């Protein structure tokens, strides 16, 4: 993975030193809160409902064991012994004290991490496919490009005050696991007719108040043109994006209001201007970066004790079926470590669990860990022969829940348990759904199903692209939950359809149960997934199950 | 007719810890809503908010939150204030931990 050079190191250290002085000046009274707030936000420090919150970037979701251990240390020393992994491949600490934050940032710098640009109207953490470099369907590892974009966007002088925040995601595979169509810029590595690799460039996707599927602005962009082209997009947006209304300030609205044709013309013209200025420095840098992402040596190995364990241990077999994905090298596998034990807070890991995962990555996983936007942790390169041993260690740490991609593998934002912007809670809804379906023992029978929950219209929990999406609102001073069905965040991204009126806090789990009962009852075969069944059946049977009284009235 | 004034408390987050705090009649910041001063009229409420805003070295973002009287002191009205007063629902952290 990428190693900081002297410049990166000096830059991050200097920012910590600046912030340390800024914190002191706030405490002494030399800075007002109005002056201090933008400074703390630039360093990832929010003030939430109950406490400060520090959001640390995990660039494109990649961590090494030393970094994971340092995250554990921070959790123990400065927080309540845990951290929360988010849908943007960040980690959030929910309880830091203001005076401790500079020390936390210094400790992060010790392991080449930072919290810069995890807030504010800047280019945020560049996210990527959590199976990058390992997936069987991948054309090329997207992370060197993500790192190039990270370096280019960090402290980019032109882009510190954009009309609104700006999110970029990169994937190297045709099966989109990085939700690139819901980003301000989505980049997908593709091959053109002459076999060259480049990018399909997608802009103007997003969730939030006005969900939009991103639109293709370039079918094929040569790799060498990545930075000038992305810079052209952001610079056109920087001038054209609305600053008069923050609900209309994201690039999705700029594209929507101006039309893709006009935006394309402006971007292409700006690209022609910018391109000569790069003079190949970006391409040279990319080569240096790419060398650091060389794949680990993965010899084709035998399966060892795998098959016997698979046949004889049903708990292990269930976990392999749901949490182990195909690796590009035969004999190897990608492991999803579920941070969704039934009844636990989605995305939370204790310091002890972080250490176990770091140890496993060291012992079995070529020192690599990934954070997924689905709030799980990935071991991208393990030998199948080691899976049984890995499973045993995970089990002892409460990390072996066999539910990846199933109904209890729920994305949930912090909601009103932590977030100052929330209109309702998300976490307890996720906990109750997971516990309920675990008790019913239906999870594996239901099969692939993505439930995503947001605690307000900002949609950090990606509810629009959940097969079942849940949005928590405040309706006249009471929590109320709207349901959407049929959303998906993959390469065929669709925004879900609203079922109708929302449900009270104590009615939302029964409502989800009715949806699932309808699906189980009406699916053609167990192989027909919830999403496929919804696409075939449409909304009607689910509506009938959700709002039976209304139907009686209409009859 | 103007809407009748609903009682309020002054609340904010402590500068150093970020904790939810409330202004008491004795001009102290308390962690406990039931110890807050319940403000019964608009002029008094605005005055107390101004007082709080003059204390930027102690708190961040003071505002007036609806509250209602009870035998055990002010109670929250809106569920957001209920969570702020109680702490998160997924762990026994924050205020709950201090009580324990
Ligand atoms: S969706 Fe809303 S409640 Fe949830 S984390 Fe985002 S801003 Fe907060």
Automatic annotation (TrEMBL), chain A:
Keywords: 4Fe-4S, Heme, Iron, Iron-sulfur, Metal-binding, Oxidoreductase. InterPro entries: NIR_SIR_4Fe-4S, NiRdtase/SiRdtase_haem-b_fer, Nit/Sulf_reduc_fer-like_dom_sf, NO2/SO3_Rdtase_4Fe4S_dom, NO2/SO3_Rdtase_4Fe4S_sf. The keyword Ribonucleoprotein does not apply. GO terms for molecular function: 4 iron, 4 sulfur cluster binding; heme binding; metal ion binding; sulfite reductase (NADPH) activity. Coiled coil: none annotated. Its EC number is 1.8.1.2. Residues 52-110, 346-397 form the Nitrite/Sulfite reductase ferredoxin-like domain. It is an enzyme of class 1 (oxidoreductase). Residues 119-271, 409-546 form the Nitrite/sulphite reductase 4Fe-4S domain. This is Sulfite reductase [NADPH] hemoprotein beta-component.
Automatic annotation (TrEMBL), chain B:
InterPro entries: DUF2849. Residues 69-100 are annotated as: Disordered. This is Sulfite reductase. It comes from Candidatus Rhodobacter oscarellae.
């Amino acid at each position: 993975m990428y190693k900081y050079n002297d410049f990166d190191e000096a830059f991050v250290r200097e920012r910590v030193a600046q912030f340390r002085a800024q914190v002191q000046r706030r405490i002494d009274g030399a800075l007002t809160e109005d002056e201090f707030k933008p400074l703390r936000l630039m360093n990832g420090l929010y003030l939430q409902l109950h406490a400060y919150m520090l959001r640390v970037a995990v660039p494109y979701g990649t961590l090494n064991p030393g970094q994971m251990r340092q995250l554990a240390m921070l959790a123990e020393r400065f927080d309540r012994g845990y951290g929360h992994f988010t849908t943007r491949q960040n980690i959030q600490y929910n309880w830091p004290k203001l005076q401790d934050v500079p020390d936390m940032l210094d400790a992060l710098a010790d392991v080449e991490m930072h919290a810069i640009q995890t807030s504010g109207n800047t280019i945020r953490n560049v996210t990527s496919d959590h199976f990058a470099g390992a997936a069987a369907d991948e054309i090329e590892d997207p992370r060197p490009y993500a790192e190039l974009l990270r370096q280019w966007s960090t402290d980019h002088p032109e882009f510190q005050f954009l009309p609104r925040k700006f999110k970029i995601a990169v994937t190297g595979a045709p099966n989109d696991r990085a939700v690139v169509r819901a980003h301000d810029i989505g980049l997908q590595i593709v091959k053109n007719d002459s076999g060259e690799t480049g990018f399909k460039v997608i802009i103007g996707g997003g969730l939030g108040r006005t969900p939009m599927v991103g639109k293709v602005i370039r079918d094929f962009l040569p790799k060498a043109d990545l930075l000038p082209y992305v810079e052209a997009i952001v610079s056109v947006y920087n001038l054209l994006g609305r600053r008069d209304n923050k609900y209309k300030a994201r690039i999705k609205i700029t594209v929507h209001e101006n039309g893709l044709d006009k935006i394309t013309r402006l971007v292409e013209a700006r690209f022609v201007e910018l391109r000569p200025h790069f003079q190949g420095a970006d391409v040279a840098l990319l080569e240096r970066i790419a060398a650091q992402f060389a794949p680990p040596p993965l010899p084709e190995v035998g399966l060892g004790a795998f098959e016997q364990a698979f046949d004889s241990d049903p708990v292990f077999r269930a976990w392999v079926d749901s949490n182990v994905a195909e690796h590009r090298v035969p004999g190897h596998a990608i492991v999803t470590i579920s941070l969704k034990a039934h009844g636990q807070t989605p995305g939370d890991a204790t310091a002890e669990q972080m250490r176990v995962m770091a140890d496993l990555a060291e012992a079995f996983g070529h020192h690599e860990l990934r954070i997924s936007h689905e709030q799980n942790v990935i071991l991208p390169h393990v030998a199948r022969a080691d899976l049984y041993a890995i499973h045993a260690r995970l089990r002892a740490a409460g990390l072996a829940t066999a539910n990846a991609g199933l109904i209890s593998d729920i994305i949930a934002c912090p909601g009103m348990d932590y977030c100052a912007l929330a209109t309702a809670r998300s976490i307890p809804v996720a906990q109750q759904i997971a516990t309920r379906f675990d008790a019913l023992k239906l999870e594996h029978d239901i099969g692939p199903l993505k439930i995503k929950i947001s605690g307000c219209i900002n949609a950090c929990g990606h509810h629009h692209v959940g097969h079942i999406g849940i949005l928590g609102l405040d309706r006249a001073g009471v929590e109320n939950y709207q349901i959407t069905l049929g959303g998906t965040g993959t390469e065929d991204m669709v925004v879900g359809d609203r079922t109708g009126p929302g449900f009270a806090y104590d009615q939302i789990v029964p409502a989800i149960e009715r949806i699932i009962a309808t699906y189980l009852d009406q699916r053609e075969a167990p192989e027909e997934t919830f999403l496929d069944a919804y696409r075939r059946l449409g909304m009607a049977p689910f509506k009938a199950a959700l709002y039976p009284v209304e139907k009686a009235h209409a009859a | 007719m103007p809407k009748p004034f609903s009682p309020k408390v002054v609340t904010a987050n402590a500068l150093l810890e970020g904790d939810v705090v409330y202004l008491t009649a004795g001009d102290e910041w308390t962690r406990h809503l039931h110890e807050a001063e319940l403000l019964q009229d608009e002029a008094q409420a605005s005055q107390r908010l101004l007082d709080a805003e003059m204390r930027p070295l102690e708190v961040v973002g003071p505002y007036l939150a609806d509250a209602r009287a009870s035998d055990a002191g002010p109670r929250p009205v809106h569920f957001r204030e209920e969570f702020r007063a109680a702490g998160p629902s997924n762990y026994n952290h924050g205020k709950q931990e201090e009580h324990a």
